[in-house]
Amino acid sequence: MKPAGRAALVAMVLGCGGGGTEPTDDAEFDFAFADPAGDTVAATTNPNQVRATDLLEITGRLDRQRLVLTLRFANPVTRWTDGGADALDGFVLFDSDTSSASGFANPAHGLGVDFYLDLRDDGFGKMAVVNFAKRRFERAEARFEDATVTVTIPRSFLTTDSDRDSWFRMAVDIAGRGRRPDVDASPTAGFHRIEPTAAP
User: Which domain holds residue 188?
Assistant: First the structure.
C-alpha cells in the first residue's frame, strides 16, 4: 500500500458493515498460510533503515465465539510500545463480506476492508480492531511469545449486520516503524481465504 493509501486507511474510518450481531453458523476449523522467508525490504523511512521482522506464517482457528490468529516471524518480535526501531507495525485486513465492492478499497490485495487489526499494541496486552462503518474500535487480547504474536478476536468484532457466516478474506501488511513503507505482505498480491473449504 502506498503511503497515501496507508494514511487514508488509518485516518478514514469509512466503509460498509456493522457489528454486534452473532454468527449464525457453528463452523469451526483451523487454517494456515505460509509466507516466503527473506522477502522483507528495508524500511528506508525509519531513522536507521531497519529491516522489519520477516513474517513466515499465519495460522489460526475460527469457531463460533472467536478468531484466534497467530503470526509467526523469523526473529523475536519487538512490541510497538517497547519503542525499538524494529517494533512491530502494520495491519491485518479483514473483508468480512468477501466483496471488494464494499468497505475501504485496498487495490493491492483486492479487498473491500470492513475491519482491520492494528498491530501496534497498547502496552497492556491489547491491540485495536477497527470497524470502519461504526467508526469505533474494540480491544483484542494480544500475546507476544518470542517469535509469535497471537491475537484473540471475538467474532462479534468482525461481524457485519448483513453478513454472519464464517467466510473472510484477509491480508497482512507488516510495516516499518511509522507505518511506511510496507516491508512484508502476505500474500504479496491478492488475499487469503479463511473458510472451511480453504482450510488445510
Answer: 3-39+53-198
| pTM, full prediction | 0.81
**How far from each other are the two terminal CA atoms of the chain, in whole angstroms?**
28
Q: What amino acid occupies position 2?
A: K
What the block records as the C-alpha cell of 160 is 457485519
| Alpha helices (H) along the chain | 3-11
What letter does residue 107 receive in the DSSP assignment?
T
The three three-digit cell numbers of residue 36, written as one number: 516466503
Are β-strands 55-62 and 29-34 bridged in parallel, bridged antiparallel, or unpaired? antiparallel
Count of CB atoms within 10 A of residue 151's CB?
A: 21
Q: What is the 3-state secondary structure (H, E, C) of 148-189?
A: EEEEEEEHHHHCCCCCCCCCEEEEEEEECCCCCCEEEEECCC
96-120 per-position pLDDT tens digit: 888 887 888 999 999 999 999 999 9
Pairing of strands 168-175, 192-194: antiparallel
* 129-140 pLDDT per residue, tens: 999 878 899 999
Residue 169 grid cell: 478474506
How many separate domains does the chain show?
Answer: 1
The answer to whether residue 46 is domain-embedded is no
Convert 1-40 to b/e letters by CB count within 10 Å (16 or more is b).
beeebbeebeeebebbbebeeebeeeeebebebebeeeeb
The C-alpha atoms of residue 139 and residue 121 are separated, in whole angstroms, by 10
Question: Would 48 be classed as within a structural domain?
Answer: no
Q: Which amino acid is at 30?
A: D
